[in-house]
Structure formats: C-alpha cells, structure tokens
Amino acid sequence: MTDDVRKKPGLLGRLFGRDASVPIVADEPVLVAAVEPRLSWWQKLKQGLARSSSSIGQGITDLFTKRKLDSGTLEEFEDVLIRADLGLTVATRIVEAVGKGRYGKEIEGEEVKAILAEEVTRTLTPVAIPLSIDGSKKPFVILMVGVNGSGKTTTIGKLAAKFRDEGRSVILAAGDTFRAAAIEQLQVWGDRTGAKVIARPQGSDASGLVFDAFAAADEAKTDILLVDTAGRLQNRTELMAELEKIIRVIKKRDATAPHAVLLVLDATVGQNALSQVEIFSKIAGVTGLVMTKLDGTARGGILVALAEKFGLPVHFIGVGEGIDDLEPFEAGEFGRAIAGLD
C-alpha cells in the first residue's frame, strides 16, 4: 500500500476538505452497466424466423431421430412443412429431395435441415431481386400499397432513409389521408431523413394530394417520389376505387408511372398474404414485395409459398422497428435461417 493511499481521509475528512490534495481512491468498486451488444443482420434474421425454424426443427427432431426413413415419416414431415406455411408444392419438393435414395436408412436431422435450406434457397433465388431505381426517371415514382397494420408507412420512412444515405433526393407524399396518425408518422420520418413531405389535412382528397406531390417532385427534379396510400382491404370498395384513381392521376403526369408498386406484407398473417398479393396485383399491378415484421412471432414460411405461386420480386425484408432493420432480401440467408442452420 502506498503512502498516498494510507493518508486517504475518511468520510468526514473528505466532506470538510482535509487532505483535499490527496487523490481519492474509491472504497467500493464502481459497477458499470453492460452495454447490450448490437445484433448483426444475420442474428436479427435468425431471431425473426425463430417461430418457423423452431417448429420445423422440432418436427425434424421428432421424426428423424433414430428412425429409418419410410413413407409414413415423409408424410408427417410434409405436414410439418405445410403447417409452417411453405405451401404444398414446395413441401412436396423438399420431401422428395429428403427421400431420394434414402428409404430404409437413418438420416441425421442436420442433413434434413441442409436439404430444406437448399430447396428453400432454390425456390427464393429467382425472386431475390434488388429494387432498381431508373435514374433517367425524375421523379422515379414508387407507390406503396398494403392493408392496415402491415407496416407500410414505417417501411416508407426506412426506404427514404436508405435512399437519402445513397445521396438521392426524396419527396414523401402522405397519400393516406384517411388516418391523421399516418400523416403525422410520415412527417416525423421526413424530419428524421431530411426528405420533404407533401401533406394535407385528414380527409383531403388523396389523388389530388398525389398529383400536387408529383408536380412538386417534377419541378424540383427530385430523384424519388414515395407515395403512401391508405391501408385497405378488398371489402372496402371505396378505398380500392380511390387507389385506382390515384394510379390514374399519376399516369396523367407520366404514362410510365408509377415505376414501382410495392406491396408491404405483414409476415404474421400467414396464408392471408396469398389473397392480399392476388387482390393488390389486380388493382394496382404490384411489381415487388416487402415483407415486414419478421420479429420472432412471424410465420416466415409464407414467403416461400408466395415466391412459388406468384414469382414476384422480393426486394426487402424487415426484422424490427429500427431504421436499419430493413434490408435487401437474400435467398441463401433466408433458407439457412428458416432451416435453423448457423
């Protein structure tokens, strides 16, 4: 022990300044709160697909542990895959791949997972297409559609952040005039990303607002115009008619626009996503998909069924609420994550 530490004053001495020149040594260790490590995109994706991968993984463990492969096992495995929303066609293809040359033999669960990942990746690879922005179109008009609660407005904000990071100018059109909260939410995203927001009071004519936003973007030679629209279901005929009107108004200014129509899908809805794609494709001519809310409660297998049935490009997937929780879709990563592979 050094002399300095020996002469360290007690509590009263410190309070009243005695030996104030002597360095004070803490009597107790200082506890510092641990900083939560930042998750990588791969870790977020694995967590987001945990519901699907754990149910499939448990099924694989139950069916393929110390058991020779037979038709009954494969039928049960097909049921597991269908319950995980992968769809009958893809499930059948995976089961056939697992059974090929292996009847009457034991097969390890990890081998089954590897086959599953390979088949899912093969199905998704043709649709894993990045969103391409045609720089000759100013503005490049992106129309965002989807049902209420799908995360559409938040997705617009995250896309605006990505485009701004790329150095592109962006205008946001608050075309969901049906909900005051959607207008306010888009204005917040505009402030966060430095994107200009064209908005009108709740209840304003949405198509008129979109026309004005297009005019503003055209005049300013803005790179990208992102158009929000009211969340709608097929049973809201007036809102579906409004969506058709918005598209007509856009085409009056540019017959080639909208240049992209992105359908935002909530990954927790499972099979309902199939009907949403079908309906919005008929009404709005969907050109690509964005899958949101892959947050651990999601039924992520539905993306595989969508790819098989519609073949629409999947541009982005979202795994959380953070501004950086939306990333371009990677087929191989998704295949490994849903199979529960590291």
Quickly give the CATH architecture of the largest domain. Answer: 3-Layer(aba) Sandwich
Strand content: 5-15%
Poorly predicted regions: 1-28, 30-35
Order of helices and strands, N to C? Answer: HHHHHHHEHEHEHEHEHEHEEH
Termini gap = 51 Å
Radius of gyration: 27 Å
- Into which percent range does the helicity of residues fall? 40-55%
The number of E-state strands comes to 8
Number of domains: 2
- Which outline best applies? elongated
What structural class do the secondary elements suggest? alpha/beta
Text of the CATH class of the largest domain: Alpha Beta
The average pLDDT value, as a whole number, equals 87
Largest sheet: 8 strands, mixed
Number of helices, where a helix is a run of at least 4 consecutive DSSP H or I residues? 14
Q: Within the largest sheet, what's the order of strands?
A: 3-2-4-1-5-6-7-8
- Could you tell me the CATH topology label of the largest domain: Rossmann fold
CATH superfamily of the largest domain: P-loop containing nucleotide triphosphate hydrolases
